[in-house]
Amino acid sequence: MIEKLNAHVHSIFAPYQNAKTAKELEEELLQNLIEKYNDYKQKGSSEQEAYRLTVDSIGEVSELLEAFNLQYSELEQAINMDYSRQRLLDSDFRSVSVHDGKFNSCDLTRSDFSHSDLTNSTFKSSNLNNCIFENVNLTSTLFKSSNLKGVIFKNSNYNKTHFKSCNLAGLIFDGETFNQTIFEGSTLKKASFRDATLKNVQFRTSDLKKIDFEGASMDKLTYNFLIGAKVDLSNVTIL
Amino acid sequence: MVQRKLSSDLLRGHVDTMILKLLQSGDKYGYEISKLIYVSSNEQYEIKEATMYSSLKRLEKDECIISYWGDATQGGRRKYYKITPIGEDTYTQNKNNWEQAKQILERLL
Predict the structure, then answer these.
(1) Structural domain count of chain B
(2) Has residue A15 got a pLDDT over 70?
(3) By the CB < 8 Å criterion, does A24 face chain B?
(4) Per-residue model confidence (pLDDT) at position A190
(5) Inter-chain contact A58–B46, Cβ cutoff 8 Å?
(6) For residue B59, which residues of chain A lie inside 8 Å, CB to CB?
(7) Distance in Å, alpha carbon of B69 to nearest chain A alpha carbon
(8) Interchain pair B76, A24: CB under 8 A
(9) Do B48 and A32 touch (CB under 8 A)?
(10) String of b and e for B11-49 (b: at least 16 CB within 10 Å)?
(11) CA-to-CA distance for B25 and A85, rounded, in angstroms?
(12) Dihedral sign (CA A82, A84, A87, A90)
């Protein structure tokens, strides 16, 4: 029955799994309901009866979603936010949604952007030293003249992401998937793209010395770009 | 049934104040709050989880309360709510408003 309760609560929150607030509310609600269910049983209800009473006590699901939307919308308000010219060292941007955000001339050293949505955001002339971008949506995000030294990129979405005049030396993009990503005038010295997948990726006038594509897969367009730049593509699969 | 629904709607408007009052005697977690509301109302009012959480999240947003995770007990961890000075003020204000409204309603109804 507890399993059934768990499944029921989970189904309410299933569409909102990206939001940290929803996950926390789910955990909290489930904990309450399990205690309530046990209390009903202790007072003599059958398992079925206790389950029914417990589920009934949730009330209107719409009201519940409103409850977490209150917090969620607070994060959503970050849309179009301008964080420019700020010192935001060690900031926590986890799970936030910042469409069209502006992070220009910021010091964002060691900030964590994991699980965030940065669609259409711009990072111009900013310091992103040792930032973390895990599971981030970087669709059409622009990084221009920024320092990305020591940045961790993992499981992110690089659809049309544009890196212009950035220092990406030594960064590890192993196993990542790139689609229409543009690397322009950037340093990619010793960067690693092992086992990565690259489609329609452009490397315009970038420093590609000792770049590593071991085991990577790429389409012909990307391959031709790189061959022209005399990059070693001996262990690359052409898609 | 219609009558019960009505009284629950009337009560619902004061859930924020009920919760603030309960938190004055110490930090509490969700199920504890709903149990206390049930018992203190002489088993007349059973608050729905959804109603309680929309109130808790609203109060948290308005900085009337803050929340923190407690240690894990048997099964899982509980999130506790604590009233803030802003919450204390809001409670006093709401309580006064209610006293006023009660007088007016008693004359009018």
Answers:
(1) 1
(2) no
(3) yes
(4) 92
(5) no
(6) none
(7) 10
(8) no
(9) no
(10) bbeebbbbbbbbbeeeebbbbbbbbbbeeeeeeeeebbb
(11) 45
(12) positive
A80 pLDDT tier (thresholds 50, 70, 90): very low
The pLDDT, as a whole number, for residue A111 is 87
Tokens of A215: 């085991």
Domains (range + CATH), chain A: 2-76 (no CATH), 122-238 (2.160.20.80)
Average pLDDT value for residue range B16-20: 96
Q: Give the Cα-Cα-Cα angle A186, A192, A196 (nearest 5 degrees).
A: 105
What is the ipTM metric for this complex? 0.86
Q: Are the C-beta atoms of A125 and A143 separated by less than 8 Å?
A: no
> Given an 8 Å threshold on Cβ–Cβ distance, is B50 in contact with A60?
yes
* Cβ-nearest to B76 among A31, A36, A62: A31
Q: What is the CATH number of the domain that holds B56?
A: 1.10.10.10
Please report, as a single letter, which amino acid is at residue B1.
Answer: M
What per-residue confidence (pLDDT) applies to A79?
A: 40
